[in-house]
Write a structure and sequence with these properties.
This protein has helices at residues 13-24, 36-50, 64-72, 76-79, 103-130, 152-172, 191-195, 200-205, 215-226, and strands spanning 4-7, 28-33, 54-58, 82-87, 134-139, 177-184, 187-188, 213-214, 236-239. The chain has 254 residues and is an alpha/beta fold. Bound molecules: NADPH dihydro-nicotinamide-adenine-dinucleotide phosphate (NDP) and 2-hydroxyethylsulfonic acid (8X3).
Amino acid sequence: MENVVLITGATSGFGEACAHIFAENGWNLIITGRRTERLEKIKSKLIELYSCKVLTLNFDVCIEKDVKTAIESIPVDFKKSIKILINNAGLAVGRGPIQDGSTDDWNRMIDTNIKGLLYVSHAVIPLLIQNTEGHIFNIGSIAGKEVYPGGNVYCASKHAVDALSKSMRIDLVEHGIKVTNIAPGAAETEFSLVRFKGNETTAKSVYEGFDPLMAKDIAETIYFVATRPKHVTINDLVIMPTAQASATVLHKKA
Ligand code: NDP
Ligand code: 8X3
């Protein structure tokens, strides 16, 4: 089998858009997420559109033994061809002052954004090393570069992703494995719906008055970075909506 990209959190947003752009360009896919029905629907669509090979893995990145079992279950022909890992699964839960925060929300963000990314990386990196080439994309955030009011634990989790990207790059350089940290600003996906626990009005209001990034913008950027020559690595990339100057400065039309 030819090139395989493994994308976590491919049931919506950036992950789903990445699946499309890689498949469109001849890649085969391993796509993961917790929502089985969505995964299977996306798989059928990808095969119909691009005639690619697609393996779905249904697991929660927070559960270490499930991550290990899922990655071990990958058939050898897929395993031998994994060239890219996109550590994308992640979320924010809640937004508000730290003194009013919910420890359950904090645990979900830390378990998913930091520990989940580590569990997946721990299981997949040996395969990349074995395949003697590889590229890991860690989806960080502008929240991993700056902090903003009410962002506290989400920002901390994405600062951890930023640090892990730097560390992985050092640890993996001798294996020729590239590590790219992608740090987007406001992008309209299901992110805010999850953050505001299903409140559609609040979620929608986040993106009103300006043109946010769309999932496709991130997928196209990742694909560009992934297709640089072997001797070129883009280590770290901040990508913002034009209306957003920083984590806290967003120019909204009245
Ligand atoms: P979405 O909510 O649209 O997608 C998140 C994806 O992560 C889903 O496929 C979801 O799948 C998966 N996921 C979440 N938790 C888990 C879990 N415990 N186990 C397995 N999969 C999980 O949001 P985005 O596409 O916007 O987010 C993708 C990444 O980008 C996240 O890491 C987010 O923090 C980051 N980001 C987002 C920005 C934005 O403004 N949208 C900006 C900067 C960074 P399922 O629910 O099926 O498990
Ligand atoms: C998501 C973007 O600005 O809500 O990482 O933190 S932001």
